[in-house]
């Protein structure tokens, strides 16, 4: 209230710009995911052309590419291919997954996937696996506590991997929420009103608003609907701006 | 079975193993080492017949002196969980004795005093209670799927070991539903300590049902956003399990 129409227009422009920048930051991560998907599809396609079923050792060929992604893309802390159960001939399930350590080293994730030993052997219900499998499209899972792979509060970006048109697993990349916050907080702070980002379910992913901290829920608006419409909206005094290309909404108090 | 062996081998060399051999900062260092290695053997993280690293290396990995490690290995030999061969090709090897798992677990429980068990229960109740309260404030319906699935699987799990793994998973998932990485990490570490012991109380079908009921009521309270109720129910569930464990300990 009390602002001139000109300032309001500038505000709207700033909001749209910030939303686009946030989308762009995650778009760079999605490029890593897409490259991993392409590498995996090429590799699996070659194996199938040899008229045999892939084995876990075949996936070692992905490693040089995965290591490059981990060192080049600052936001990415984990990257790899997660096989659909039954894809590989030698193991029931497999994650060809690499992570960057605190000291900048690159190491493989080694999980106990034996259902007789581990309560965490089935990974097919996690959003980062189930969403691309069920929708056929790329997805952003989280924020969530990733107690399977990293023990970190994370976003996971993933895409389905298809071989001869059939779902073979997902290519994915992890972004730790603390790194995401470092990347987007300077953007949120430029805005004249307290701002935060939520996912399609209203879970706060990053915030410059002490009243809405990461992990909490912003209740009221139907963020899923707003993202489908891909147009700014308003709810109870809040301005809502969808981020281009990614399922996050910029919320201004 | 080949595929299982492959995966297990990787796992043994991997994260689980690092956790097994991470530094122990306990006053009762010998007991802590005995428990850590003993639990890893009971839980199958260290396989029957597997060779343990050399004494100097193992002591280094666990952050204890070789004197402490030797005492711990002696205790593990007495429990029949480790054998030592001398000379070329010698060293310490994991050996699962031919006694029923129940007896081995009771031997493990005997290394805990009731005071330590009570304290462990307090820690667990603090973690799960806090997780229940926060989850009720921060959960939306999609977050409950995993908890429901775990509660459901618990009602069908046949063996005590599987029941204990699912029990632990429920509390880890509750901490994750609280959106707290710290509470989740603490809960995972706590389950590493108590997981094997819980087999002793979860073999009882009636008690398994009681736990499953308790978990379902926690889920309902979380879903309703009734945070005090969710926290109190989660604490009650955990305290009852600890009380049963103490009762078993007192019979030994």
Number of H/I helices of chain A: 5
The SS-based structural class of chain B is mainly alpha
**pLDDT averaged residue by residue of chain B:** 85
Neighbour order of strands in the largest sheet of chain A = 3-2-1-6-5-4
Number of alpha- plus pi-helical segments of chain B: 12
Number of domains of chain B: 2
The CATH superfamily of the largest domain in chain A is PAS domain
CATH class of the largest domain in chain B: Mainly Alpha
CATH homologous superfamily label of the largest domain in chain B: GntR ligand-binding domain-like
List SSEs of chain B in N-to-C order. Answer: HHHHHEEHHHHHHH
> What is the radius of gyration of chain A computed over CA atoms, rounded to a whole number of angstroms?
20 Å
Low-confidence stretches of chain A: none
The poorly predicted ranges of chain B are: 1-13
| Mean pLDDT reading of chain A | 93
Described by its quaternary structure, the protein is heterodimer
Structure overview:
- Chain A has five helices and eleven strands, in the order ααβββαβββαββαβββ.
- Chain A has helices at 5-49, 63-72, 127-135, 177-189, 223-229; strands at residues 78-83, 95-100, 106-108, 139-146, 152-163, 166-176, 195-199, 204-207, 233-235, 238-242, 248-252.
- The longest helix of chain A has 45 residues, at 5-49.
- Chain B folds into two domains: 2-98, Arc Repressor Mutant, subunit A, CATH 1.10.10; 112-251, Four Helix Bundle (Hemerythrin (Met), subunit A), CATH 1.20.120.530.
- Helices cover 73% and strands 3% of the residues of chain B.
- Chain B has twelve helices and two strands.
